Amino acid sequence: MRYRATLGLAAALVAASGIAFANDSVLKNTANPNNWATQLGNYAGQRHSTLDQINTGNVGNLQVKWTFSTGVLRGHEGGPLVVGQYLYVHTPFPNNVYKLDLAEKGKIVWQYEPRQELSVIPVMCCDTVNRGVAVASGKVFLAQADNTLVALDDATGKVLWTVKNADASKGATLTAAPVVVKDKVLVGVSGGEFGVRGHLTAYNINDGKMVWRAYSTGPDAEVLLDPSKTLMMGKPIGEKDLGITTWPGDTWKIGGGTTWGWYTYDPELDLVYYGVGNPSTWNPVQRVVDNDRAKSDNKWSMTIFARNPDTGMAKWVYQKTPFDEWDFDGVNENILADIPIAGKTRKVMVNFDRNGFGYTLDRVTGELLVAQKYDPQVNWATHVDMATGRPQVVDKYSTFHNGQDVNSTGICPAALGSKDQQPASYNPDTGLFYVPTNHICMDYEPFKVAYSAGQPYVGATLSMFPAPNSHGGMGNFIAWDASTGKIVWSKPEPFAVWSGALTTKGGLAFYGTLEGYLVAVNAKDGKELYRFKTPSGIIGNVNTFEYGGKQFVAVLSGVGGWAGIGLAAGLTKDTDGLGAVGAHKALGQYTRLGGVMTVFGLPD
Amino acid sequence: MEMPTRSAARAAACVVAVLALTASGLVLADQPKAPNDPTQPIDPWDNPYAMVDGKIDFGTYNGFRRYHASCHVCHGPAGLGSSFAPNLLDPIRERLDYQAFQETVINGRQVEGATGDRVMPPFGLDPNVVEYVPDIWGYLKARADGVLDRGRPDHLAKGALKGRE
Predict the structure, then answer these.
(1) Quick one: DSSP state of residue A118?
(2) Helices (H), A276-350
(3) Does residue B150 lie within any of the structural domains?
(4) Are the C-beta atoms of A101 and A85 separated by less than 8 Å?
(5) Closest CA–CA distance from residue A474 to any residue of chain B (Å)
(6) CA–CA separation, B18 vs A528, rounded Å?
(7) Is position A327 annotated as part of the catalytic site?
């Protein structure tokens, strides 16, 4: 006891001295390839491991080493973390956390089982998912569905502090994995389909005190940007309070812009990156100023922010889909990498947006370098104007142009996006990005909807179907060249690939499928080398770690999420005649609910 | 502090609702199909929908839209269920009448089960739902009766038929 108290005091002194020390634990843990210490593998979000014991030559022999049932049968997003001899696994609501000891064959060291009001369940629009915990500075951070951010003692699992981040009675929930940067833990908020006004918030890791909160809409002072300094397309924004003036009346207060994706961080530039989600409602007619699209960007929805982690101030912004008309919820992760652009190595970030464009931006300034479609079916815009950064919207697919109560048909991608939250991977060995994608299109009819606090605020009817005139399936796993914006190879899948990708120095790329397969392919050409069917559909992210001199691959199974809702019953009418899809239109024929972690390894 | 009491009360209320539904299910197996009579007023009790030349009445079409805005994120497309909430067409075929449907939509429902707690929120204060319960019922009833297929139905103009439109 006394020993631990002394250590605790030492840690407190270090924190008090103001040295950026706390995140050193994350840097240290992620630098060791034996660990999988953050949800995205490292601060840059690369989901790449330098382990190579499992490689293209032997992956065909991969076998299940052990499994762990989470005891919860809902959509399992995110994945297990491994630090040293311990593995941390989380569950969907009620958000249990287990710390397992790898030295004792996965024995449970402690478990945390929060009690939460059941009334939070139905305000989680698309299943009670959670994308995982963060481990840092002797603590485990969990963002619970009921908006409680909790810090647990890594040694005992006891609650050190909790803080309430938002109000579930207004439709706000938490699903995103927190990220620890220095002595702060960052959390977002979910609830874009309930008219929640989005924000990103930093809390002190030692006591849970709020340090700053940056809203996604509203006055500059609350968005934490300075129009004379914060850059947009390489220049200061200039105009004040665009987070108000680009909305009709007070609608910015219920304007969405939630922040439920992944957050990345560049320690050298000291900038945090994240994407802001769709504006509420899905009916664009209710978000237009003077019936003029040009005045109605609905800022700062659909925006990538680069912020200072200490103050929250925005260094630069880039809005991907101004005035959204399709629910292209812009929260997807921003992967940091240094890659050649026109022959010169640049510090970039790469974003595979829901809207179907793969963006490469200079992460120092926010300059737009590349914007190309990463699914050739994308049709709502012809291209992105590189001078203005704006997508050139095709009237035929503009649900605003076609108007309220009109069904706009054949829009690609669907609201699920060409990619949803499932995080991609960057492999420095090949220089390519490996992207799990959806290959689904939609009809979209917006109509007038009334706001009522805590009730769904959607305002559109959608039907979704596999991309027509293609392979008939609903997904692809692709390799992408972010320097030029080109697909290098594309591997079709019958269902949307809703699992986070992993690449390794063993020349491999891994992903999971909605039917439940863990798949390994050759990173060079996408040739399939291994496939194993786990107990339920996979919407979690594949991870790898080494313990006791052996490399393992781990993944959570447990179908659900929006994938489970949209696909469980199949997407199309029997009469739609969309070719091959008829054979596998209903996911329910392939998998059922589950909640299991499967750990793979090579034969002894 | 008040949490356990409130949940307990809600759970108790919900058990009653479930028992009531189960009991009525035993009596009312295989509900009769709705009349689908365009000459009579559209009414959730006696004539919840009507189709003329392959086109459904406007209210039921509106039910399709409302369902897919507020209900489908849990109950799946076209009432077919999802991994999160049950299929609605089977219970409508087997036991659910308009009375029970209306009560559940307005008051919500909570079921504890082996696969986890299922919670439906009360929509009694949601103007996007509560004002259109008869339309949503008409849509689901037409689906359950096999009159409407999945997807967007062709529809008559607003006011083409008598009744709730």
Answers:
(1) G
(2) none
(3) no
(4) yes
(5) 16
(6) 49
(7) yes
A108 forms beta bridges with: A100
A569's enclosing H/E stretch is none
pLDDT tens, A568-598?
555 554 334 333 333 346 787 888 889 999 9
Catalytic-labelled residue, pool A183, A327, A329, A481: A327
Contact A230, A236 (CB under 8 A): yes
Q: Is the pLDDT reported for residue A321 higher than 90?
A: yes
Q: Is residue B41 part of a domain?
A: yes
Residues of A in contact with B119 (CB under 8 A): 118-119, 121-122
In a domain, B157, yes or no: no
Nearest to B21 by CA among B109, B129, B83, B146: B109
Report A:128-167 residues touching B (Cβ under 8 A): 128
pLDDT in tens, A23-40: 789 999 999 999 999 999
CB atoms within 10 A of CB A11: 15
Q: Do A193 and B73 touch (CB under 8 A)?
A: yes
Each residue of A113-159: pLDDT tens digit? 999 988 888 888 678 899 999 999 999 999 999 999 999 999 999 99
User: Looking up tokens 């606090």, which residue turns up?
Assistant: A453
Which residue of A116, A121, A585 to mutate against B (max B Cβ within 10 Å)?
A121
∠ CA A77-A82-A88, rounded to 5°: 55
Q: What is the identity of the amino acid at B42?
A: I
Which residues in B lie closer than 8 A to residue A539 (C-beta atoms)?
A: none
Chain A residues with CB under 8 Å of B81 CB are 568-569
Which chain A residue has its CA at the smallest distance from B71's CA? Answer: A456
Task: Measure CA of the first residue to CA of the last residue in chain B; give whole Å.
Answer: 46
Contact (Cβ atoms closer than 8 angstroms) between residue A119 and residue B119: yes
Domain of residue B51, residue span = 3-144
Name the amino acid, one letter, at B116: G
| Total domain count, chain B | 1
Question: Would you say residue A5 has pLDDT above 70?
Answer: no
Give the position of tokens 């619970």. Answer: A144
pLDDT of res. A8: 43
Tell me how far CA of residue A335 lies from CA of A14, A23, A222, A438, B106, in angstroms: 31, 19, 26, 19, 45
CB contact under 8 A, A449 and B128: yes
Q: The tokens of B21 are what?
A: 């539904």
* Secondary structure element (H or E) that encloses residue A63, with its range: strand A63-69
Q: Is residue B161 part of a domain?
A: no
Amino acid type, A544: T
The CATH number of residue B57's host domain is 1.10.760.10
Q: Are A537 and B113 in contact (CB under 8 A)?
A: no
Rounded CA-CA distance B47/B130 in Å is 19
ipTM of the complex: 0.76
Best mutation site among A329, A452, A538 for testing chain B: the one with the most B CBs within 10 Å?
A452
All residues of chain B having their beta carbon less than 8 Å from the beta carbon of residue A560 are 83-84
